[in-house]
Every structure is written in C-alpha cells, then in structure tokens.
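Recap quiz, item 2
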Amino acid sequence: MKGPIGLELSRRDFLRDTSVLGAAALIASAVPVAERILAADPALAAVPTDEATMQAFADTIIPGRKAATTDLGDEIHPDAIAGVDDEPGAVEADVMRLYHHPLTGFDALEPAFLADLSTRSLQQGGPFLGLDFEQRSAVLLQALSFDNPDRVLYEAAAAVPFTAFCAAAVHETGTSKNASGYRVMGYPGAAPQGYRRYSYGRKLARDFTKKGYLK
Amino acid sequence: MAERVDVCIVGSGFGGSIAAWRLAELYRAADVDPKNILVLERGPRFKHTDFKQSMYIGHLSNIYSLIQSTQGTGAQVVVANGVGGGSNLYLAASLRAPRETFERRDHHPDDGPERRMWPKELSRGALNPYYRRAERALRVERPRWNQVSKSGGLWAATLNAAGYTCDRVPCAIDLELCQNVKWCHTGCIYGAKNTVNTNYLGAAEHAGVSVRPAREVQSVRRSTADGCPAPGK
C-alpha cells in the first residue's frame, strides 16, 4: 500500500495482529529472517542478551514514564525509558518477562534482531540505547516500513510489548490493580464475581441530558 | 497396536462434533451401536471450572495452539486446543449470514469471467432449514433488552442517535448463567456458553461415540490390512 492513508491502514492491521495469539504466529513467521541473518554471521548467536536495549525498543513501541522498577519488581535500566509519556508503558508492564518466557519463543530471534537493530541505529548516530526518542522512532519507522523485506522481524519484536501491556500476559490473573497496562487502558481485567446486574436495562435511549449526552 | 473402527473423526470442534452426532443418529436409526465411531482430539478435556479469566501466556498455551505450515510461505493458524474445540473459546454470536453473502460475485480481471463465489445450490434460502437446526441444537437465543450488557446498550443508543439501526445479536449462551464479564475468549468459567460439549458432542458421547482427548493425529495413510477395499474400488 502506497501513500499516507495506505500506510496508516496497514499500521492499523499490524496493531490488530499484535494480540497474544498473533504474537506467537508473528514470532514463528520471523524465524526464517532471523536464521538468514545468523547464517550470514554465525558469531552473532553468541552475543549475550541485551536487556537495556530491548527495554529501550519496547519503550519506543509503547512509551512510558520514567520508572526504576516494573509492576512485578524487576529493575529497569536507567537509560532505557525515554520518558515521553506520563503513564506507565510496556517496560513498566513487564515486557521483559514476556520476551524471555519460553512459550513466547522470542529468545531464538533476539541475537539476529539485536544485530539488525544495531546496524540501523548506527545510521541514526549511535547504539539504540543512546539515541533520543525521536531518533529511536526514526529507526523503527524505517525498520517497520514496507520497504524493508525483513520487517516481520520487527513486527514480531513489537508484538511482545503490545501483548504485555494490553493483555497483561505476564500475570496469571491480571487486573487494573496489578497490571499497569490494564490500568492505563481503564480495563478492569479479571472479574470472577461478574457484573450480573450491569445491564443497560432499557430499549434504545432517545433522551439527552442538559449537556447533550445520551441518557 | 492396530485398532479398527467404522469412522474416525479428527478433531472434536464444530466440524467433528456435528459429524459425530449426526452419524450416531443414523447408527441408532439403523439399530447399530455407535461405539465404533471414534473422535480423536489433540487437546485435553476441560471442565468450565478449569478455565481462567486470564491472558497469561501459560494459560493461553493450554487452550490455544499454533499450527505452522512447513510449506513455503504457508499460513500460521491459531486454533483452539481441547475437547469441544473452538466452541469453548468463541464468543457464540449466532447470526445467519445475510443473503448478499451467498450472492456475492468475484471478479479478477486476469482470472476469467465474473462468477458467483458460492455454488448456486448454497443460498440463504437453501440453508435456512439448516440454520434453524443448528440454532435449536446450540440453544441460540436473542437477549432481551434487560439482558444486554451496559456497553452493548450504550453502543446501540449511540448508533441509534447517529441514524443507524441496531438490534441484539442472537447468542448460543445461557443468559441466566452469563455474568457479562466478556472473558468468553479464554473459556467461560460460569459454564454459560453452549459449547458442543453441552449439545452435539455431549449427545454423541451419551449415545456411545468414543471421544479420546490427548490424541494428536500426525499422519493419515491408506491401510493395507485385510478387509480394507483396494484403491479405486
């Protein structure tokens, strides 16, 4: 899809796909790309995990306020969160736990992903962690654009922050009390007691309040 | 260890469970025990109390499964995992497809002349009796306005104010048990959803059909055992 409207629609499709269920499928789709990157440079597989850079990436996808620890008490690298938002973002919502969860399958992609991210970041002036939010965004806009044949690797990596934030996928029982993503979205989460009497209870309203809201 | 059955059905979701029940009915009409109809299900058997209102990746991995195509750029398909298949996890909205769906025509300029996408035997009119049958089996009901959730009601009012019509969606849900929490997609913990376990599959098992969970079919081959018809016969 070409042109600004086409690009916007495609980005919306991408957002829809990054649900918990979509994340696993995207990660699986990205494996061939990761394999190709590793085949070109096998030494990359030995590169240790880079928590700070992954946090910085996740913060660029769903930005948050500066914070020292996550919902579950894990440490956040001081340079990871750019701080462009005043509410919690993906990093505070424990995206790292989801990245490393064995069922997510992202660990297999990480070395290739970090190598590719590093190459692109250098074009913006330095390692990803050292870039400001605008520069980080520029890196990702290029990586996610339709011009990049390897974009599925970035879609897969971006699916994880959405899943951690919007679906509280790291919590066995997520509610707005323990999961910042739910709280920011205004979503109560698990509610075993139900909302039995919470019915609209009437046919379509045709009256308006003084302020013009539907009654 | 070889086993012989009359019919082996792979999967216990909508496809498998309806086939199992209708076959069981035919067997009973012919006075034959349906016990030689076998349903194999990859996933486990769930009680509704086994489900959780949670998108925790560990829980989702139990109730959903990812089928990966190994061929080229094949699709990745997210499917339900468990006895009753997708009926455990779907939102049970039970609308009949409108007539236009079946009349739709497809036109790709490089693909030949424009044509009707569905076979002409499949029209809304032709399918109405089958819709009725399925709605009875699944116990579909349309909620009354005092059963519609608050968000649903507000949505309806908004549409109405904008000049659009709106009505309540018929659901295969027991509206007395439903608690309006909208955690349908991770399995209803109140047992309010009329999954196939509560109709087609449950009835098939009651009639004698065998349903075996935790059995994944990995390949299907023609048998060379005695008594099996030779190819082409």
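Chain B has six helices and seven strands.
The interface with chain A takes residues 52-61, 64, 66, 68, 76-78, 145-150, 152-154, 156-158, 160-161, 166, 179-181, 183, 189-190 of chain B (CB under 8 Å).
End of item.
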